Every structure is written in structure tokens, then in C-alpha cells.
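User: Predict the structure for this protein chain, please.
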Amino acid sequence: MIKAQVVFATITGNNEDVADIITEALEDLQVTVTESEISQTDVSSLTDKDIVVIVPYTYDEGALPEEGLDFFDDLADTDLSRQVYGVAGSGDIFYGDDYGVAVDRFDTQLAKSGAKKGTESLKINLSPDENDIQKLDQFADNLVSAVSN
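Assistant: Here is the predicted structure, written as C-alpha cells:
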């Protein structure tokens, strides 16, 4: 049985929606999923999962979610070499070069932890629409395939 953890940070609710869509897609693929808010999640809880998904928002001019700073820092000190990961997040293209920067930064941090990238990072503009849901379903498929291979 494949186990996954989907960790999200949200202000507007968009990232919780993204996390819910990913969780549902993984469950449809027979994965046992735990979904949690970033400030309520200890990085050590990821070490017994096969798949780790982070869904962060980008604040202001490219800043990480304040409630997720400790989590971000703890990732660097955690061995996730047995895990496959993916990062997705909602942002606003209004911010130009700062659009979805937290997605990129968490991607880099997870790679530093030794985790294997299971799918390309995904940035969603604002609230996920039907097209985004299809991309998120594919995102989940890719992660499960990466674990299975």
C-alpha cells in the first residue's frame, strides 16, 4: 500500500483546494493519504510516507508562507531519500517574476533532502479550474508511477 502526505499552506483557500484535488486524485489511485496544514505538520512525519506533496503559497514579493518557515528549514535536516515528491501551488500571475516562487523554493529544498522528484512542479493561477484539475490528476498519476517504478 502506497502512503502519501499532502501538506498545504493557504490564505485564500485556493491552496487547500489544490491540496484537496491532489488528495482525491491519489485516493482514486488507491493511495492512503494524510492531508495536513503546514503549521500542524512535523517534517519527521514524512519519513514513513512514499509520496510527499507540498502545496505552498507565495507571499508578497516571493516570500515563503510565514507559518511554514520552520517546516521549510526542517526539510534541510531530514533524510527523505526514500520518498518521491511533488510541489504544486496556487499563485497570482499579477506578481510576474514572483509568481509561485515558493513552489520553486520548496522543490529545491526537497531535492536537498534527498527526495526523488516524481513529477514536474505545477503552478496554478488563482483558483483551480477544470483544466487545472486535469493537470493535478496527471500530477498525482506521475507521482504514483514514480513510486511504482
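Residues 52 and 65 are 18 Å apart (CA to CA).
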